[in-house]
Amino acid sequence: MLVLLLGLVIVLVDQLTKQWIRSAFTYNDSRPMIEGFFNLVYVRNDGAAWNFLSGHGLILILISGVVLVLLAIYRRAFLQEHVLHQVLLGLMVGGIIGNLIDRIRFGWVTDFLDFQFGSYHYPSFNVADSAICIAVGLYIITNFLQKKELEDD
């Protein structure tokens, strides 16, 4: 139940923030929030992370669908039943569905969070992307810590 609830919250927040950006900004508009560090922008990404597979929306839709099915089928094989892994699965599912909705509706994903670190400009992203990255990052960290704990015993 936690997985579904968190996934739904991620999808709702993702879709509401993207809708707000599309209605309040013009395409390619940028507004500084923290000068030289953080901007809100309205950009469209027809690829995956860092524009990978740009122009191949159908393939990205199919990949998203396959990953969702695999997560449903094999979730117990790589996720334990404790709360943290349920949260990670909820973040992952919500993020995938949030971007999948955009791909199906528009053929691209709305990105709007834009960070700079000195001369480095990080690619723009959205709430769904954040949820997916947080889930994957925490999954890797928790598995690394578990393996280290087993090695120390």
Question: Could you please describe the fold and organization of this structure?
Answer:
The chain is an alpha+beta fold and 153 residues long. The chain has one domain. The chain has helices at 2-24, 57-78, 83-106, 127-152; strands at 30-34, 38-45, 109-117, 120-121. The chain has a four-stranded antiparallel beta sheet. Strand 1 and strand 2 (38-45) form a beta hairpin. Helix 1 runs parallel beside helix 3 and helix 2 packs antiparallel against helix 3 (83-106). The chain is globular, with a radius of gyration of 17 Å.
Describe the structure concisely for a colleague.
With 153 residues, the protein is an alpha+beta fold.
